[in-house]
Design brief:
The protein is of the alpha+beta class. It has twelve helices and 30 strands. Strands 21-30-29-28-24-27 form a six-stranded mixed beta sheet.
């Protein structure tokens, strides 16, 4: 009996998903546990496995397309099974006959592909992968394997520079690297020949010479309708989510993007060279090693024109930047929180003299370094255990009072904010919290955070003190009931024992959801927090 597979909900905030890549084609045999596709959510790209066995009869969402959660994604059943009843309401009537005919047709035997038969046994053609939804071409930043090297499945073949970042590109086959189609610094369209892998000693010169962009599938197999499956034999297109982001070497300036190889970027950082001042000699103006080596600094007057976009006086001008999936998700979730949760704000100012002395003494220990933010995370965690109402979460049918403390720490990234979660923060030492926050912040900026590292927060902290912001308010990270906004430590005159003396204070603002946290409850939490911050030694007791 055919089973309908719907778009799964892969995160607590997911409303729709995008198919990054299908790992199975119509007609393929499916085993329970096989990875069907990789789904891009509002937080990450995740593998989606099958819970059924059978034949993949129908695909309802093509690669790059987006659909809502619980909408038709695919159908699995017995080969030749009639699936017309499952398609009602899911596709246009005029397309249904073609879809059913395609699904019921016997799957084509890959061995009958005449062009594939021309490939020597074990030879695999690797094409330029599509590593982002907007990528049309890629540049080989660095080859990590040379022709003749043995390649194991999972080895990193090269670093590919896209329109967004430089990504590690791993091999999904084992063998010998027989041919490289692009040199370092060269660019090519998506699906162009990138490399050939196969048994050592195999002659692949004729394969490289005759390769056509778009794959090895014969022309008669390509169907004009975008919703038809087009089998491609012996050409591997690497899934987007299987790549690992490493270093973003694309610098956004007012004048557009500046492309530089990872080595050039590193050399520029070491020498204190602004990439905006360097003219690139590589493909499409890309900055390479020799450009940094040969760079001669220019005066400030000369360089100013390189980093500021010239707009004639009186002329309107603007740039448009497409919203990423992350930014769209953030906008949607924050708008929902702001307009559904009745926010109110409590403002306090803490004396930081003891905290500053405590941190200096703590950091004098060998191989120990904590930040004020680490101290605030720890203090909040301890205070939340005494005030579970603030550590609560609101749901339509219930209120959940959490006995565990998972604190989300907001981290700024180019596309907005990510909130990695320090779990069981009240049970961790200051140094453990510091190490976790530093690790998560690095992963967030390099887009390496795993989904489970961003889920489950019961309370959130947003700190803009390092930017000199004295006071601000934040929007609650639902379903949490509160978020703490932390400002900078400011040197100012304060009154102590009736005398005006020099002091240091810090302002904090607690945003609360009035559905779960009453004003008095929030005030009591801040009083407890004040005790830990102004007397930090009590956090060690």
């Amino acid at each position: 009996m055919a089973e309908v597979i719907n778009m799964p909900r892969l995160s607590d905030t997911m409303e729709e998903g995008t198919v990054a890549v299908w790992l199975k084609n119509v007609g393929d045999k499916i085993e329970e546990g096989d990875i069907l596709a990789e789904i891009e959510t509002d937080k990450a790209t995740m593998e989606f496995e099958s819970f059924y066995e059978g034949t993949l009869l129908y695909i309802g969402v093509q690669e790059g397309e987006t659909t809502e959660v619980d909408k038709l994604l695919a159908i699995i059943g017995e080969a030749g099974e009639d699936i017309s009843s499952h398609l009602n309401g899911n596709i246009e009537n005029e397309d249904k006959e073609d879809v059913i005919e395609s699904a019921n047709a016997a799957p084509q035997d890959a061995s009958t592909d005449a062009k594939s038969e021309a490939l020597p046994e074990g030879v695999i053609v690797v094409t330029m992968p599509r590593l982002s939804d907007t990528m049309e071409e890629g540049t080989v930043a660095t080859w990590l394997k040379n022709v003749g090297d043995e390649v194991e499945e999972g080895d990193i073949l090269a670093e590919i520079e896209t329109d967004k970042a430089t990504m590690e590109f791993e091999s999904f086959q084992s063998g010998t690297l027989l041919y490289v189609g692009l040199n370092e610094g060269d660019s090519a369209k998506v699906d162009a020949l990138l490399a050939i892998i196969g048994p050592a000693g195999t002659d692949v010169a004729h394969i490289a010479k005759n390769f056509k962009v778009g794959g090895d599938a014969p022309k008669e197999e390509v169907k004009p309708e975008p919703k038809k499956e087009t089998p491609k034999v012996a050409v591997v297109k690497t899934p987007e989510a299987a790549t690992k982001p490493v270093v973003n070497v694309t610098t956004n300036t007012a004048n557009g993007r500046i492309f530089a190889s990872p080595l050039a970027k590193k050399m520029a950082e070491e020498k204190g060279i602004q990439l905006a001042q360097v003219s690139g000699s590589g493909e499409n103006g890309r900055i390479v090693k020799k450009d940094i080596e040969n760079f001669t600094p220019v005066s400030t007057a000369q360089s100013s024109s390189l980093v500021a976009k010239f707009v004639p006086s009186g002329q309107e001008d603007f740039d448009e930047v497409a919203n990423s999936n992350m930014r769209k998700a953030i906008a949607k979730n924050l708008a929902k929180s702001k307009f559904s949760a009745p926010h109110y704000y409590l403002n306090v100012e803490f004396d930081m003299e003891n905290a500053m002395a405590f941190r200096a003494q703590y950091n004098s220990l060998p191989e120990t370094k904590i930040s004020y933010n680490d101290m605030i995370v720890k203090a909040c965690a301890l205070a939340l255990r005494q005030h579970p109402q603030v550590n609560s979460q609101w749901f339509d049918d219930r209120m959940q009072l959490n006995n565990h403390v998972h604190i989300g720490v907001a981290v700024a990234v180019p596309d907005g904010l990510l909130v990695p979660v320090v779990k069981f923060a009240n049970e961790q030492s200051l140094t453990q919290i510091g190490a976790a926050v530093k690790d998560y912040a690095g992963k967030a900026r390099n887009k390496k955070l795993a989904l489970d590292e961003m889920e489950g927060s019961t309370f959130t902290i947003s700190n803009l003190g390092m930017f000199g912001i004295e006071s601000f308010t934040s929007i609650i990270n639902q379903p949490n009931s509160a978020i703490l906004s932390v400002g900078a430590i400011v040197a100012k005159p304060v009154v102590k024992n009736g005398n005006v003396v020099a002091g240091n204070t810090m302002k904090l603002t607690l945003a609360c959801d009035h559905r779960t946290v009453d004003g008095a409850t929030g005030a009591q939490f801040l009083q407890t927090l004040k005790g830990y911050i102004e007397n930090p030694v009590t956090m060690l007791v």
